[in-house]
Design goal:
Chain lengths: 345, 420
Amino acid sequence: MVLSLLLASCASDGGGGGEGVQSQKMETIRSRGKLVCGVDGKLPGFSFLGPDGTYSGLDADTCRAVAAAILGDPEMVEYRDLNSSERFAALASGEVDMLARNTTMTLSRDSAGGNGISFGPTTFYDGQGLMAPVASGIKTLKDLAGKPICVESGTTTELNLADRMREQGIAYTPLKFQTGDQTYAAYLGGRCVAVTSDRSQLAAKRSSFPQPDAHILLPEVMSKEPLTPASINGDPAWADALRWTVYALFQAEELGITQANVAAKVAEAKANTNLADLRRFLGVEGDFGKQLGLPADFVPKAIAAVGNYGEIFERNVGAGSPLKLERAENRQWKDGGLIYSPPFR
Amino acid sequence: MTTSSSPPLLPPRPAPPSARRSWRGALRQELFATPLDGVISVLLLAALLAAGVGFWHWAFRQAQWAVIQANTTLFAVGRYPLLQQWRLWLLVTLAGATIGASWGLLRSHPRADRSGTLWPINDLVAIAVLAFVAAWLPVALKLPVPLQLRWWAITALLLVLRGVSGQWGQLVPRRLLRFLPLLWPALYLFGMVLIAGGLGVPRVPPSEWGGLLLTLLMASFAILLSFPIGIVVALGRRSTLPLLRWSSVLYIEFIRGAPLITLLFLGQNILGYMLPGGWAPDRVWRAAWVLTFFCGAYLAEAVRAGLAAVPVGQLEAARSLGLSVPQALRHVVLPQALRIALPATVGQFISLLQDTTLLSLIGLLDLLGTARTVMANPEFLGKNAEVYLTLAVLFWCCCAALGLGSRALERRLDPSHSPT
């Protein structure tokens, strides 16, 4: 009873900003009091259950940020573990409000004639890479000429490797294995000088090796896998809210706003009327929230919940995690990466 | 039949070689009867020893069991809210008490035609194993001390009730004893209320059930409901009413014609489209119903085999005594058919229990799903062997319990010793 009253009051608070913005999905989320977020649930660094029964990972943090933005509370998320074959059906039938499930954005998934889903900003640029022992001295693809490379058979990985090597005219010996476990066992056993898979997978495997530091990921990326959160087509207001919440995490990193200093930044923006950009971004001034159908303070709420994009990356897959992935393409655009937020104006 | 037409008696066969042999003699005869036997035995024993030593070395030297120790709650109940877990403890306590009491009463009331001992050797072995596991496991899992104490208390309660009800069970009148089997469905229903909430207890949505809790719940739900379905459909398939017969055949053949994983996906994906949002049953319940109807079709065939094995004269005799068809089925045919079908039925239940691992493929956090999410935790990457071994042992225990229970039931229902 008390709980439902609380939820009702939350809902009306949240709805206050959304006058004039029509979104059935957002109405549903507010009246339910929870965001239903489809995740993989079994992917190292992206979404998995911790010993205390809470979800962690880059994808789970995306769900949290959106819940904080729309409902004001990052814990109001109901996670659904979805496998790759049912994820789009779950989205289309309305079982989940959004996907944050390492889904590669492609034309056929985006188009109305295909899966008909609506992609937000890419939160992780993955791609097929190569791993080799540091001691082997291999630095680039060229160094692999004439050498055996371990690869899982029957995957796109195998085809991509063949394509890239043929383009560059490098002869090599593919050693094919049925399962991932066999592939990495052969690599560790020294039967090949390199192993290929998605870079995030390679990093996850590497962290389970006896000596993770003895292996490096080569800089070459052989395929494009932009992992992107998504929502259903046909609710543009909800898709916008999702998109700009993720952009806010990008923008926060660019502006140096972190989980730790966001409260101070808000106070600073309130005190100094000259900081127009910061005031608008943090919802102190203007009506960005209202335009999106979100509460005015959705940006500080999201940042306070999970931190800016850089913090999310480092905590879950970067230096602060056992995966120790390089930022690489996932750096800010100013640093030569692809993470770029359009202006908050 | 007259005695004159019976065949002449065979001459008495020589007595079998003495059943009592010294263990040394037995060893020689079983393993080293001929030189070839001896070589094979030595090689096999050496291989077993090497495997055993290798496993021992891995399990106690190399394996890092922290992945299990840190995630015991997850493996046991999944994401069940911490504050509500007292309900599960209450349920385990009640189940322990019911097991102890039923066990003791079963021993103190042997079948009228059997001489039962109060403490058969099987029970002593079972009690010793139970006591050892209960004493060792909570310590090995490094559970917090209060939880260790709880497990010990529950085991002690079970064993004490086993002793008490065994010793003084004779004092319970047989009339009251007839209601004992009702204790189990009552406990099950009460358990469902405890787990799911309702009747004044806060609700815990199925999406937060997981681990062993979810696996056992799914399996027991499907087992309990598929049993009546199986009987009805088996009778329907033998019915003379064409509509009933054909719909039974259609149901059985449809289910048996599709792999379980296909049906599970069908249940998850189609129901969401067919029913408006919010109306479709929760994904956990969808899976439970799919499992139930899947198992029901196979059970129907097992029961049908049992029905076919009962001579038609049984039904005719019962009918000629004035029993109606339902009465004849209920009192004469079905008891015999179900006893014949028991081994096949339990085999089906065991495979159903193992089939629940498919739930992890539709994104539910059953035992295997929990294991996969635990292995995805970057802290425990690469600890697959430890996790899978734990899972295998857990499943083995559950299936062994089902198998042992069914054999005990078979013995108790075995008519060959019944008074003539």
